[in-house]
Amino acid sequence: MELNPEDMTPVIHRLKRAQGQLAAVTRMLEEGRDCKDVVTQLSAVSKAVDRAGFAIIASGMEQCLTSPNGDLDRKKLEKLFLSLA
Which pTM does this prediction carry? Predict the structure, then answer.
């Protein structure tokens, strides 16, 4: 199952934003910022990465379901999906 690069453009953007957010978390820790602020920012990073993962899996599932050769491997898709849970 190969991902369509056009479908992945928003996912790439989301991951780049998450990368910036994670760098901000590191800076906040180095600066000794308030725990609440650090955890809030870290939560945002975690959610962004999770959403990117779900978008990737959704795209892969769509490709498998619409594939003319019917190469849907349910077990592999289930394992991928559960890896994000």
Answer: 0.75
CA separation for the pair 78, 82 (Å, rounded): 6
Can you read off the two tokens belonging to residue 51? 């959403």
**Tell me, what DSSP letter sits at residue 31?**
T
CA distance 33 to 38: 7
Locate all alpha helices (DSSP H) within the chain, ordered by sequence. 5-30, 35-66, 74-83
> What is the chain's pLDDT, residue by residue, as a tens digit (85 residues)?
677 788 889 999 999 999 999 999 999 999 999 999 999 999 999 999 999 988 888 887 777 667 666 566 678 777 877 877 7
In degrees rounded to 5, what are phi and psi of residue 54? -65, -35
Longest dimension (CA), the chain: 56
